[in-house]
Every structure is written in C-alpha cells, then in structure tokens.
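Sequence and structure are kept together here, with a separate record for every protein. A complete record is shown below as an example:
=====
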Amino acid sequence: MIKRMNDFLTGMPMTVAGGIFLVMSFVFSRTGIVLPFDPAWATVMICGIPLLYLAVWRGIYNKGINKISPALLISIAMISAIAIGDLFAAGEVAFIMEIGAILEDMTTNRAKKGLKKLISLTPTQGRRITGHNPGQEEMIPTDQIRRDDILRVLPGETVPVDGIIIWGETSIDQSIMTGESLPVDKGVGEEVFCGTINRFGSVDIRATKVGGDSSLQKLIRMVQDAEKRQAPMRRIADKCASWLVPAALAIAVITGVVTHNIVRAVTVLVVFCPCALVLATPTAIMAAIGQAAKHGVIIKSGEALEKMGKVNTIAFDKTGTLTYGKLEVSDIRSFDKNMSEKEVLALTASAESKSEHPLGKAIVAYAKEKKIAIKDPGFFRMQSGKGVYSCRRRRFLFGPDCIV
C-alpha cells in the first residue's frame, strides 16, 4: 500500500513538480505577487502526504524503537510549520526528504540491472531426446525437464539445466558462472551448468539438477538476497532517529516555554530535521557505484561497497579476473630454422581463419594488424580440445597441403 502510494505521488516527475511549486512560492513571496493560494501547498501535498502516511504506518505497525523514524520528526516539523503559517519551510523539509528517497531508489535500480541481466540468461526451453532413437527430439519448456532426462545441446545453444555429458565433445563458455574468459573444453563424464553457452560441438547430457536446484537459479537467489541487505550506513538517519526525535521535541518545548515564542520552537524542529543525513549516504553510494561502473567494476550492493572500505588485502583467484577477456598475441617463436616467424604467423592465421575459437580469432587479428596475407584454408575442421586442421584440397586430407 505504501509503495503504491509513493510510486503514484512521489515518483520523479511528481517530485520535480513539487520542487517547481516550491521555487514559485519563494519567487512570488519575494516579488510581492499575490496568488489565490501559496504554491508551497502543492509541494506539501505532493511530498508531505506520503511522508506523513509513512510516519503513521511505522508508528502503528513497527515494533519497539523502529516506530521512531526520520519521517516522524519531519512530519512533526512540517505540521508545526503549517500551523504557524510558514508553508515554504513545510514544503522544503518534505521536498528534501523525497529527494533522498529518489536517490536511494536510483541506487537500488542501478544495482538491480545486474540481476535483470542475470535473469534474462535463464534458458526457457531445452531439446529432449525421446524414445530409443537418438534422432527423435522435442523442444520442451525448461520447467518440464526432469532429472535423468537426456538432452541435446547444439552449438550456440544455452545449456538448459545442470547435467553430465554422456556423448560428444565441445567447449563451454562458463563466464556467467565462473568469470573465466575462455571457453572450457568438455568431454564425456564432465559436468555442464545451466545458463552456460555451448560454443562449438554438439553434446548429449543427462540432467542432474533441474528447476530451482540448478546452479544458475542458486546464483540468482544469492544476488537477490544480497540486494535485499541494506548498507549498514545507508539508513544512518533511521539509527539517529531514536534519540534525535525525542531530543528535538524536548528542546523545542523548552525553547517555547522559555521564550514564549512558538515560532522559535517550530524553528528548532525544522532545523533538527535530518535532511543532510537523509541525503548524505544514498548520494555517496550512488556516486561511488556510478564511478566504479565507468571503469568496468560492478558493485552489487551498498553493503559490499562499505565493506570494501575496511579491506586491506585482495586475493585474485585467476587471471581472467584481472583482464578484459580479450586475447592478444604477445610473441611468435619458430622451431624450424627454415621457417621465419612471419611465415609461421601466415600459416597459423590461414589455418585459423575459419575458426570461432578466441585463440584462433586473436591469431587472425594479429596477422591482419601486421598486414600478413591470409590464404583460404579450403576444407576446415575443428575438433574440440585437440585443435583444427585445414586442407586446400579435401582429398589430400593429410597430404602436404594440410595444416594440422
């Protein structure tokens, strides 16, 4: 209920509108222009009502110290300002509170982009082998795949469930699960994971983990749980509220009694509003996540960001963690005295010119960069885990025109 109300009344467009009305109130009050009503009323309605509703809801349904929140103090200050006729002050504190809420929502949405991308990789169907004839296949939704079903995964397809290879050889792109930048060669008896991509050969697998038990679904649940955990400092205003609200009320009452001036008492409440605390942490987190993303670093939550501030040692488990995953040729060595390094590069690039393997692509790209002539290999074949061979003429498969 609260979320729907906030989405309707305090989304970005409505909050911007509230800010415009607040500026209008300030300008018109300084220029002496008389309007039928103070525009600050609109800001109070747009930003203040959801805030008041939240304070009341927390006071009724939360337990213990959680009943006291910054929303309660700001609501009291807003109502007090309205009572003495200072509509601008009432609209201002409500508007700043909503700006802080929007910044938090923007931080959350940015963190959820990674989760949405992860969920989009979830396979929707698989190719199940039916009957005793290996040629009989049917495409079925992944939720209909059962343990021990035999599935066929063709080159370029996504592995629909966790399983064990029972026939065939291939190379699997496991970057979604392990971060490994290069495809991993797989053969009979080896495990493949849901959501990974079959790059080259066709394989048959026996399903071992399906549905919510698959590795990809477990990974998605881990990311979802991480996003639900707020940063310890993210709601610092909530932590301060337990003593800030009583202190502000006490000082305001004392000020009013001593000075016999209600305006000064209300001023104390307005000044005590934790606007800076509301804005500080979400602003810092959003800026940090944004800057990190520009440099290729994805931060999954504010909690993870805060923990990094206490880190003094980082251990990296594999090279792929520290690279862009783009292979390049560094050196060429010829072990044949009659063949120069340039000839080795030309021969190798010609053999790999039709290969889709990242190593082959890196060799071909390097040859083109060096302006090496690449010849058409003619007949080409790749065997997973063993390399490629190509021939100008197919009948001389292992003759002098062959490159293995």
Q: What stands out?
A: Residues 80 and 307 are 40 Å apart (CA to CA). DSSP finds 13 helices and twelve strands in the chain. The first strand starts at residue 125 and ends at 129. The chain has three domains: 2-117+234-307, 125-222, 341-403.
